[in-house]
Amino acid sequence: MADASTSVRVKKIPDNLYEVCLTNLVNYIQKSKCERNDLRSLPDTILMDVYYKMLQEKRLCILGAELSELDMFERLLRFSSAQLQLLQCFQAVIEHGSKLSTELASGYLARCDANTKSCNWLIQLGLRLGGFLNEAGWYADAQRVLLRCRDLCQAQPQTAHYKRLTLECCHRLLNTQSAYCCFPAAAETYALALKLLGLPEDVATKLPDDSFSIADTCFKALQGDEETPTAGACAEEWCGACGAWGGSALLALLCKEFSALFFVRCDYSAAHAWSMHALALLTPHTPPKITIEVVRACGKACVVKRRFSAAGLLVRQGVALARAAFGAAHPRYAHALIDYGFYLLNIDSITHSVVVYEEALSTLRRVFGRSSLHVATAQEDLAYALYVLEYSSGRFYKARDHAERAIRIIENLVPPDHLLLASAKRVKALILEEIALDTPAGQDMREPSLLEESESLHKAALELSMMAFGEMNVQTAKHYGNLGRLYQSMHKFQDAETMHLKAIAIKEQLLGAEDYEVGLSVGHLASLYNYHMNMHRAAEQLYLRSISISLKLFGEQYSGLEYDYRGLVHVFTQLKRHDRALHYNVLLQHWHGTVRLHSTHTRGRAGAVGEQYSGLEYDYRGLVHVFTQLKRHDRALHYNVLLQHWHGTVRLHSTHTRGRAGAVGEQYSGLEYDYRGLVHVFTQLKRHDRALHYNVLLQHWHDLREQSKAEQQPALGDEQIIPLEELQAKFFGVND
């Protein structure tokens, strides 16, 4: 008797009649080479289905010829429910070798020059086509279309109707120019928008203190005697544009674009102020697309302003809204995920950040293929997250692959001197530097070439930043800082010092002496002086300054304090001032205890950290350090054993009193310092096998902690939508 498993035959479910008809029609068109006009009589819904079937059947030459007809493409642009399918068809044709984006943009410009259509029709087509090309990632062609559309708007009588159309064009232009790093052109568009809104050029300096009067001025500028054109055709076009949204939605979009422009120009205070202004303008009647864009801008601005609680709320809201409005297969959802990954990366949830970036990249690839600026920027973001994730393991090859893929895509799509290349090259340079440093001496003769390639990439990124921003910009200062760290690795200490000093000077002038970025660069220079240039007294002052900035901005739990305290311990050890070294070692242990206490408190485990953490631990640690410095390794080992015994007693007591067996296990935060201590002890005793053993345990501990952090984050799909009024109430008072 035959096996039952072999007797079951899987039957392919046949296509329904409609799908069969579409397939036969596409095959007929392919074989008969019929006239294009044969499809013009089809309704928009069926026409889009025919084109999508051409994509599925790989009839890309015919599909490209169809989509290159501007009149046909204009019909599809009006059919908003099929935008995702249109994006897929559009990108597939381009990857097949077509210049479809350029052809459509040139066709629109020719149509404007021919002057055979009404001005209102051309403006509406320009807004739709420019917006589509922008969303597809073809920014140069989108800018060509939108600039001509803007000129058409300005050539009309400046009634309230045409002012609104011009402002809608400005918001799309700003989106394109910011994404494509066209900063001089973006500045002109920004100035035009402010002029039309009746706002002064220095309005950004008055935010958020004068937000109410600014909003009032904007609303008055949009008001006029006419709300819609009188002609029937024009009225229909008007309803399809910004008039249907209302003034508040248009203003919210403009403020969001102002925020995005200041964000890419690294003016984070203005970016945050404009984004909050946009959030205040949202209403329950605002279209979901606009609400999502505004919430995303607010979330990103809060991340860079280090307001992580608000940022988490906003980015999760953006993800939830995008998924509900567009579905998990839409690029707008993927872009919201990228913002979420950016937030997770900044709150040190690296593993979860990588997962989110990978999901976003997968979604974008399904829509845009493998040759799109959207895909390239997502790969760059993923490469950097993987670089941070694998920093301790040294497994950078996956990160390097993504960075190199991003660079290849960008190089094929933009001019060689474009700023978009700078960021991708910076990421690859950081990765190559770490690969070179992790390569054991004598094992791989390519190490010098890796560092030299990293230097070349950093210099190229710096040059591109200088061309776009000039020297007095935070982004340029960051590139100087990256070069400084690289030169430190290359033992070019004088060059490293020069780069760090430049970075500090620029940041101080732009951001003030007490800014986070200044403290970061000061700490890097202190490390150079401390560990490589033997300038310990200068390093001491820099560390103290960095600590002061960190405490003022972030408090005692700030993670960067660990490196400053460790640096000061090393400084005073080298200066033979063991009392000061012991003092800062105690502060370091206090920092660890504070972080553990804060972490336990925020997870609702009151009482888990008590008197046991404030007494013997610091004494034992201090004695371990003292005897290690005195080369009395037997005594250091003795007190390290006592320290381990103390930890075991505390863990046992803590577990018993809370009645939670296993509550403190392999992920316990104190294990990190114990493992590090044992690595140091056995290194000093020249017992490298044991040192390696505990270093492996330390890496395992880090992996478990990252996994735990990922588990603590809400799973994708679990984000909840907060009602708009409730969301706004968290940021604004009753009178705002």
Task: Write a short abstract of this structure.
This protein is mostly helical. 74% of the residues lie in helices and 0% in strands. Among the domains are: 377-468, no CATH class; 471-476 and 483-600, Tetratricopeptide repeat domain (Serine Threonine Protein Phosphatase 5, Tetratricopeptide repeat).
Describe the fold and architecture.
It is elongated, with a radius of gyration of 30 Å. It has helices at residues 4-7, 17-32, 44-56, 60-67, 70-78, 83-95, 100-114, 119-136, 139-154, 160-179, 183-197, 211-222, 232-239, 247-264, 268-281, 288-304, 308-326, 331-346, 350-368, 373-389, 397-413, 420-438, 447-469, 474-489, 493-511, 516-531, 536-554, 561-574, 578-602, 616-629, 633-658, 670-684, 688-712, 724-729. The chain is mostly helical and 736 residues long. Among the domains are: 377-468, no CATH class; 471-476 and 483-600, Serine Threonine Protein Phosphatase 5, Tetratricopeptide repeat (Alpha Horseshoe), CATH 1.25.40.10. The longest helix is centred in the C-terminal third of the chain and has 26 residues, at 633-658. Mean pLDDT is 81; it is low at 1-7, 225-244, 599-615 and 650-664. Helix 10 (160-179) runs antiparallel to helix 11 (183-197), helix 17 (308-326) packs antiparallel against helix 18 (331-346) and helix 19 crosses helix 33 (688-712).
Characterize the overall form.
elongated
Identify the CATH homologous superfamily of the domain at 471-476 and 483-600. Tetratricopeptide repeat domain
What Rg do the Cα atoms give? 30 Å
- Distance from N terminus to C terminus (CA atoms, Å) equals 80 Å
Mean pLDDT: 81
Number of helices: 34
